[in-house]
Amino acid sequence: MISKTELRSELRARRAELAHAHPDFARDVAEHVAALNIADGSVVGGYVAIGDEADPHIILKKLTLQNCALAFPRVAAKDEPLIFHRWTPGQNFQRGTYDIPEPLKDWPLAYPKILLVPLLSFDTNGHRLGYGGGYYDRTLDFLRANSTVRAIGVAYAGQEVKALPREGHDHPLDAVITENGVREFRR
């Protein structure tokens, strides 16, 4: 059986190929945002895509037209959940942990009800393989302990695999949005 480390390496290469093959991904995936049925005024946790990650920026732009508030994650400490801060148009991110664009510490805190999640792969049952740091699983633990949160993977359709290895602490996705549409996973 292939290790998660080897699998991540293989899936990073696949995602890079998909990104190269789909230069209009951000526009194409955003065509399906209405199918997510996100209520007007929701607090949505997004992310700034880095490298060849599936880019949600046009999805986020469309959600602002629905009066949704956007929040972005900041790594506060290793082995801790991500902290989300409300973003206001015109605010600039800083380079944070892992050189990822993050909000500043003094931006207002936010507790998203909708969480857009980057990933390396997802399977037919809605399980995801992330980067191995566990940040999104710890964040979902924290947010779901206090409220209902919907986790939506943003991915290239070609990132889907039949099954992924998973552990007890891994949180499944509620849905995934790709350039081909939205798929809901029933729990």
Counting DSSP E segments of at least 2 residues, the number of strands comes to 13
**Under CATH, the topology is which?**
Rossmann fold
Structure annotation, total helices: 4
Helix content: 10-25%
Number of separate domains: 1
> Quick check: average pLDDT?
94
Describe the structure.
The chain has helices at 4-21, 25-30, 57-64, 135-146, and strands at 43-45, 69-74, 83-86, 94-95, 101-102, 109-110, 114-117, 121-123, 128-129, 150-154, 160-161, 175-178, 181-184. The chain is built from four helices and 13 strands. The radius of gyration is 16 Å and the shape is globular. It has 187 residues and is of the alpha/beta class. It has one domain: Rossmann fold, CATH 3.40.50.10420. The model has no long low-confidence stretch (mean pLDDT 94). Strands 6-3-2-1-7-10-12-13 form an eight-stranded mixed β-sheet.
